Amino acid sequence: MAKQKEPCSAAELDFIHRRKTAALIRAAARIGALAAGAGKRDLERISRYGEAIGLAFQIVDDLLDEKESDRKNQSATYVSVHGREAARTRAAELCDQALAAIEPLGRPAEPLAGLARYIVDRKT
User: Fold this and answer.
1) I need a labelling partner for 75 at 20 to 30 A (CA). Which of 12, 17, 37, 117 fits?
2) What is the DSSP code string of 34-49?
3) What are the two backbone dihedrals, phi and then psi, of residue 117, each rounded to the nearest 5 degrees?
4) Start-to-end CA span in the chain (Å)
5) Which long-range contacts (CB under 8 A, 24 or more apart) does 15-22 make?
6) How many whole angstroms separate alpha carbon 59 and alpha carbon 42?
7) Chain-wide mean pLDDT for the chain?
8) For residues 88 and 78, what is the distance between their CA atoms, to the nearest angstrom?
9) Which DSSP symbol is given to 76?
10) Distance (Å, rounded) from C-alpha 120 to C-alpha 85?
């Protein structure tokens, strides 16, 4: 008989995705900021933005990819651990955090704000 998977906790899921998707998007944002000559304070703002929007991206990805096979295989996704509505709420909260992080940057950060909104509002 096959051993049943142990459920993934919310903390474990966050740990995984903060070090996977969020870390990749955070790194991309930091590289862009460094290339643009960002100072220490602005680099920290961009880092917070990248991590928040990276985690939001993963949550929305889990919402869009929710499949019967994920439920059947007990895959650890934000939807399976938190439910659809809580996952949507968390993605929106993370978008707000990302926007707050870059707000002091003003107009030059508008493309990043648009990207954050797109990531959370995407349907496909």
Assistant:
1) 117
2) HHTT--HHHHHHHHHH
3) -65, -40
4) 38
5) 16/76, 17/54, 17/55, 17/58, 17/59, 18/51, 18/54, 18/55, 20/58, 21/54, 21/55, 21/57, 21/58, 21/61, 22/50, 22/51, 22/52, 22/54, 22/55, 22/57, 22/58
6) 26
7) 89
8) 9
9) -
10) 13
Computed over its alpha carbons, how large is the radius of gyration of the chain? 16
What percent of the chain shows pLDDT beyond 90? Answer: 68
Asked if residues 83 and 50 have their Cβ atoms less than 8 Å apart, the reply is no
Please give the structure tokens belonging to residue 97. Answer: 């955090």
pTM of the model: 0.86
| Two structure tokens written together for 116 | 């954050």
pLDDT tens for each residue of 64-81: 987 655 566 667 889 988
Q: Tokens 């961009």: give the residue.
A: 46
Query: Do the Cβ atoms of 112 and 101 come closer than 8 Å?
Result: no
Q: Which residues contact 31 (CB under 8 A, 6 or more apart)?
A: none
